[in-house]
Amino acid sequence: MTETTSGPARGSRAKGGKTAKGLRMERIHTTPGVHPYDEVQWERRDVVMTNWRDGSVNFEQRGVEFPAFWSVNATNIVTSKYFRGAVGTPQRENSLKQLIDRVVKTYRAAGETHGYFASPADAETFEHELAYAVLHQVFSFNSPVWFNVGTAQPQQVSACFILSVDDSMESILDWYKEEGMIFKGGSGAGLNLSRIRSSKELLSSGGNASGPVSFMRGADASAGTIKSGGATRRAAKMVVLDVDHPDVEAFIETKVKEEEKIRALRDAGFDMDLGGDDITSVQYQNANNSVRVTDDFMKAVESGSKFGLRGRMTGEIVDEVDAKELFRKMAEAAHVCADPGIQYDDTINHWHTSPESGRITASNPCSEYMHLDNSSCNLASLNLMKFLRDDDEGHQSFDAGRFAKVVELVITAMDISISFADFPTEKIGETTRAFRQLGIGYANLGALLMATGHAYDSDGGRALAGSITSLMTGTSYRRSAELAAAVGPYEGYARNSDAHNRVMRQHSDANDSARRADDLDTPVWAAATEAWQDVLRLGEKHGFRNAQASVLAPTGTIGLMMDCDTTGVEPDLALVKFKKLVGGGSMQIVNNTVPKALKRLGYQAEQIEAIVEHIAEHGNISDAPGLRLEHYDVFDCAMGERSISPMGHVRMMAAAQPFLSGAISKTVNMPASSTVEDVEEIYLQGWKLGTKALAVYVENSKVGQPLSAKRKEEKAEPEPEKVVEYRPVRQRLPKGRPGITTSFTVGGAEGYMTANSYPDDGLGEVFLKMSKQGSTLAGMMDAFSIAVSVGLQYGVPLETYVSKFTNMRFEPAGMTDDPDVRMAQSIVDYIFRRLALDFLPFETRSALGIHSAGERQRHLETGSYEPSEDELDVEGLAQSAPKAETVKEAKEKAKEEAKAEGVSEAQAPAPAPGGAHNSTELMEMQLGLNADAPLCFSCGTKMRRAGSCYLCEGCGSTSGCS
Questions:
Q1: Which of 396, 540, 788, 842 places its Cα 20 to 30 Å from the Cα of 363?
Q2: Which one is predicted more confidently, 395 or 161?
Q3: Distance (Å, rounded) from C-alpha 757 to C-alpha 753?
């Protein structure tokens, strides 16, 4: 533990005052006189990132410098997201050293200025240890730190903001402005609208008030227009309404009605995909909605009694509703469209350290940060896999001592950042500097649990997660008390000291009563107990530097920066992951956690090799040779045949929640077969188990309804009769005819198309075969191809079919394995785009908006789709091009890279399928699933869930605020 050289709780605050001796910093990883950069091997790499939809280059920077052990993906994301300076100029950062120095040296300088260190030697130790931890992917600050610190722009370090709005037009317009400025800076914000009077109340002029739901429209439109940070993703925002607000039912139904609108417009042929041209006509799509419920309401739900809705101006009951019916409406809405989520008001405020300064009424967009209105929280997350130790005899342990020291280091740095940080509004700056809210957390929990042989949904897994979370928060508050001794407690502490110390006792009591499970978590609990005892002792003596210390954030982009297999508190997505190679190309490889888990469970090397090979081939552990049935649940993942149950996710949240200052960003995934009653049970158990907030997502709930019913109705209406003066004659194809056979994959559905031509090259027939013989889809495609073929032979022009059937939308839909048609709205949409490319002249299909990948690239470069007269002889050039590496060579190459990263050869690396561009798409192909996530706007690959947001593994983009 780091010590301070000052005794009493005196000293200077950030704004000045009495001086005090600072902290003495302890070395954890580094050696005096040796810089961390000199202890690793560096190499130069080229970063070229493309959009898989059209092949265009999104980002390119060559010759960047990174450690040899950093993955290609981490290198790409840090280079494209965090390096500052215009690309192609000398001012552009080109080395990880420059990025780390820009941030770490700024933190050191601020720490020295504000009296955090006892001596220059301690400041140097701080700098070296912080640089080492980032360099070796032990932890990472949240993205705004890497964006802004050490640059000429405002030093914003926070990703999470909470705003407020009162019942006045001036306040409402201020809300719009403040939210817009936060979005412009690339962050997200949340707020509670419950102070705005309801539509059932009167204005001072005598008319009816508009109500908060009405004002949500304006804020939603603003968010959709501004987007986030000038990027192509939508702004992240959270809107909360109290359950006793008279407009709560209208609030619950907002997104349900809009989902119905989306389906109706999509069926009518409008472009309603995320980012589509017509989606902007739909309201309330830029925010996560949550209802703030009280214990009284939840008790009324259990008893089936009435619950009063209160006017905002008088506080009197203006209406009574059946609590169970209102709760049912919440569950029905969440079942259909994943909104609203639920926040448990009394639980949240029971753990509030600063109640004398105001209640906690809202959260940030991802629901992990909860504190005072007009405040912010800067985040950092630790990579838990970096603290897993294997001794000489193969035994595992979690390095609690080193973990605690890194927590102390990171908390110190995070607190220093508030001393120099800029904020988007004056009110947020004042509150943050007065309460100094921090949000330390972790990533890779799912990987750690699997590697240690713990099922995610198990007592042992929850005990290990709880112990680590308790140690993290206890150590954070211990360091916060030490910082208070060195540089003073937070300004709001004196007023809230009784409440703050009460909450510390609650954390300590929860730690003492928590269940110990095995040899891994018991020593961690012991270290946590010692930390909490120090917290109580030092806190009473010195106070605390920070009103909040910990949250569990989604760890989206920074999780990729740290090469984490899992984000935040989430389990593994799947057992096989997608890996980019330094020399180009990609491989699929069994997660490194699998052999570690098998070794922990007592399997021999030969058995491990056989099981891993089975996983590499099949993507799951079902029927793996030699794997005992009682160990199957260790390898359960977020998706797949053996996915973790919804209550398994809730129980894990409940295990960590008592040891967090804030909350947990997490969505409880529920299978498509889930009922409204299942959602009700999740919301009810979340309250009983003591979580602070929950959101659910029922698989396929937000995907457009199948178009069959609507199309059948449309086709049932006969076309207007046309008077014809001739009867068309069918022109059959000769016995021998030229043809093209194309294999394709659309949204995971595989098939083959054979297109045969007349001798004069006109298309004459089409045969379609789907991979699942005997299925309804296969039968319908057979019939459809016969009908199209007969129509072609009777003289229906191909361009007529193309114009009618392209853009038709139904499942399966999504990514294809065709470079010319990267996305298809349905199998029919893909088929006729492919036929147009193969059989229609350029002018005809260009008028229909159908172009090849090469033509689209040419348009980006020259502004024209048309080939130039001096077009290169592509086929001729291909003859002289270097041969692509063979599968064998690629596999050997992957094994060498895997060996360099400490991955066992038993993990059987293999070339990734051509249609996969990240782990999500690879999982879909291997397991035949639909991950039910949006496509990344930047690179076109399918994103994956990270907390209550989405993350793109390809380029690091997120749909949230982290």
A1: 540
A2: 161
A3: 13
Q: Is 952 a catalytic residue?
A: no
At 307 the three-state DSSP class reads: strand
* Cα–Cα dist 681/670, whole Å: 12
Give residue 372's pLDDT: 98
* Percent of the chain whose predicted confidence (pLDDT) is above 70: 82
pLDDT tens profile 473-491:
999 999 999 999 999 999 9
| Identified catalytic residue from 160, 366, 939, 949 | 366
Is residue 337 part of the annotated active site? The answer reads no
Which pLDDT value is given to residue 644?
94
CA distances from 72 to 66, 88, 284, 919 (A): 10, 21, 38, 14
Give me the catalytic one of 288, 364, 546, 592.
Answer: 364
Q: How far is CA 599 from CA 399, 588, 675, 893, in A?
A: 19, 22, 39, 26
860 is written with which tokens?
Answer: 């980006």
364 flagged as catalytic? yes
Pairwise CA distance, residues 157 & 806, whole Å: 47
- Going along the chain from its start, the domains and CATH numbers come out as 12-157+362-542 (no CATH), 164-356 (3.20.70.20), 583-636+885-931 (no CATH), 710-864 (no CATH)
Catalytic residue among 93, 179, 259, 368: 368
Distance CA 351, CA 435 (A): 15
Q: Is the peptide bond before 340 cis (omega within 30 degrees of 0)?
A: yes
At 893, list the tokens. Answer: 């190459």
Residues 6 or more apart whose CB falls under 8 angstroms from that of 423 comprise 156, 158, 376, 429, 432
Judged by DSSP in three states, 342 sits in: strand
Transcribe 816-864 into DSSP letters. EEETTEEEESSHHHHHHHHHHHHHS-HHHHHHTT---HHHHHHHHHHS-
